[in-house]
Design brief:
This protein is mainly alpha-helical and about 300 residues long. It is about 60% helix and about 5% strand. It has a four-stranded mixed β-sheet, sandwiched between helices. It is elongated and about 60 Å long.
């Protein structure tokens, strides 16, 4: 259901983009808009991971530099049946993390220094498992496409505003340009946010499955959300268009309006994870039964003839 819903939302976003081009420039504008969408998505497909990591000044991590983090990612990637992703560290006090990459073979997981310093080991595992679920579900590519098309709609609307669109189209000339300029970017942003919210719920479930500890992920979400209210992340504030990538919205100002938030309410995510823990679906297996210390062999029964 989530995959179908995401596909419909992406189709709606593409249709909105082409419709915006039609309102501004008629049939030729629609064709140019489609060509522009293909070009921007092709660029995002090959370069989105490097751009995202560069935005937040993420530094590569090796097993020698951060053995605990490296081993945790390696173990969880094996549990998720994924190739080992590249690991990066962001020098930021706010606890947060994101995943990027066009497919599992070219994926990267980036965590902040605040995540490692403020969360317990099981909570860090839960967050990393959540990001690996994004990689396994190919959400990193889906959300990149959604963000790229939404940004392209806004850019196209700005072009229409300054150029005035094609006014030789009867009743749709001026009205079409006004609709494209004022309503299309808002609709695109809402669709992008809906895509992001849908994928976050799926990644929470996937993270609980990979780590087999939904309560640890729920505790991590609560801590990250609470800390993000007062600890600013400078790189995210400078590049707010990357907020949808993180496990929790890193922008302090955007937290005031849930309608325009790129993430579902943390309370609902925590409630869903607690429900998973209560039904035992993703419960971490307990310790093996203890063996008896009595090593005496039972006395065989000898039957007499």
């Amino acid at each position: 259901m989530n995959i179908m819903r995401t596909g419909l939302l992406l189709a709606a976003l593409t249709a909105l983009f082409m419709g915006t081009g039609y309102l501004i420039g008629g049939t030729s504008g629609m064709v140019l808009a489609l060509a522009f969408a293909v070009a921007t998505n092709a660029f995002a497909y090959w370069n989105s991971d490097r751009l995202a990591l560069r935005m937040h000044r993420a530094q590569p991590v090796t097993r020698m530099s951060h053995p605990a983090l490296w081993d945790t990612v390696a173990r969880l990637a094996q549990q998720a049946q994924l190739p080992m992703p590249k690991v990066y560290l962001i020098d930021a006090r706010q606890a947060n993390a994101f995943a990027t990459g066009r497919n599992p073979d070219n994926a990267a997981v980036a965590v902040t220094a605040g995540l490692l310093h403020n969360l317990s080991a099981p909570e860090v595992e839960g967050v990393i498992a959540h990001e690996l679920a994004h990689v396994r579900n190919r959400d990193t590519l889906i959300m990149t496409i959604a963000a790229t098309v939404a940004g392209a709609v806004s850019m196209l609307a700005n072009i229409g505003f300054f150029m005035g669109g094609n006014r030789d189209r009867g009743q749709f000339g001026v009205i079409g340009v006004l609709i494209a300029v004022f309503l299309a970017p808002l609709a695109a942003a809402l669709i992008q946010m809906t895509v992001s919210r849908t994928r976050e719920y799926a990644a929470d479930a996937g993270g609980a499955e990979i780590s087999r500890n939904p309560l640890a992920l729920a505790s991590a979400l609560a801590k990250i959300s609470e800390q993000a209210k007062w600890v600013q992340m400078p790189s995210a504030e400078t590049h707010p268009n990357s907020a949808h990538m993180f496990v929790v919205n890193p922008l302090i100002g955007m937290r005031l309006d849930r309608m325009f938030s790129t993430h579902p309410p943390v309370e609902r995510r925590i409630a869903a994870l607690e429900a998973m823990a209560s039904d035992g679906t993703y419960r971490r297996p307990g310790p093996p039964p203890r063996r008896s210390t009595d090593r005496r062999s039972p006395v065989p029964v000898v039957r007499r003839r």
